[in-house]
Specification:
The chain is mainly α and 470 residues long. The protein contains 26 helices and no strands.
Amino acid sequence: MELIWNLCEILFIEVAPAGPLLLHLLDWVRLHVCEVDSLSADVLGSENPSRHESFWNLVTILVLQGRLDEARQMLSKEADASPTSAGMCRILGDLMRNMPVLSPGSTQTLTELELKWQHWHEECEQHLQDGTFASSPHLESLCKIMLGDEAALLEQKDLLSNWYHFLVTRLLYSHPTVKPIDLYFYAQSSLDLFLGGESSPEPLDNILMAAFDIALSNWWFVAHLTDLLDHCQLLQSHNLYFGSNMREFLLLEYASGLFAHHSLWQLGVDYFDYCPELGRVSLELHIERIPLSTEQKALKVLRICEQRQMTEQVRSICKILAMKAVRNNRLGSALSWSIRAKDAAFATLVSDRFLRDYCERGCFSDLDLIDNLGPAMMLSDRLTFLGKYREFHRLYGEKRFGDAASLLLLLMTSQIAPRSFWMTLLTDALPLLEQKQDDDIETTKVEMLRLALARNLARAIIKEGSLEGS
């Protein structure tokens, strides 16, 4: 756990740039590969360190960890004990001392460092080509390591012990100014080279790879690690300037990324739910931007909004779907969505379309919906009229003329019928006026209606006659 946390400190808290990044990674490896200290004590504690069986292993490990000053001191012991190799030890020691390294607090630019490092690298390569260390396989191997030779590094797999040690050593001697954004590429290639296809990555390897992948899709690793640390009370979280803390900020960023994905947006809803400060507001903004490409998707979005009592969003979605249905001439679906949205104005518009279609075709569509409006018909006067007028037709069809006449009379006198529909109502009244009146029908109103029709008919006849006479 400490290994992972220390790496995350470097990548996500220190956020070290190119140059200092490698120094932090070297410290990380040295901290978690501690065998070298005990080995050093064992070798230096012997009577003749340069003749100790682990002497060259110690020098190699020091070079692999970039501890070149200590490696030079060990080489000086070899030079003292073996005059024949003193000259080679001195040359390699000078190369170690002259290796350009970006010191903490240094004002040296990365460009200057790269130029100096390139010159130093060429000098090392020249000595190797000239065979300066040809008579000493150990010194020659060390020079190859300092040149970043991958084959020479992989020969030391036992001393490296793990792929991330190999990665840092490889970066030190091949790419000292590596940028954070390139880390994942080098980490992946180092893991593949180190394992060599002989074994599969362990769970720890996968976690470290996720950490190295700074560009990991939608900040998954950063968000979840911060959330885990917050729950363990290991993260001292400070409020940011917009009112959220670091945990919530990262969760909001991750959830926003999920919403941009065509199939992962539903997961983003759950992440917003766990953001107490700004989660709901963010969810409302993102919900409104979801393209309602299919009715099935719209129903999913609607269910999410209804579960969270997001009234305005529910109304907006239903209205959008109602408008789409009207454009496609699906009046039943349009009426259903407008009722669900509790949008009286749109319900009136759709009801007018139903009545207009009835006038043109002489029958209603979507009878199941209209017959089962129930209390929903009270949403608007026009919808009430539609429902009651359909009920009149049903009563008439069942030959319940008395009930049909009473309902039609109510529709005529309630003033909820649209003016364009008055003639239709009067036409519907004609066969009923010819029926024998029952006691339970309001006879006075029926007689008044008959008288009014007779007067209008007389006026029409007189007007028509005067027009013909002129």
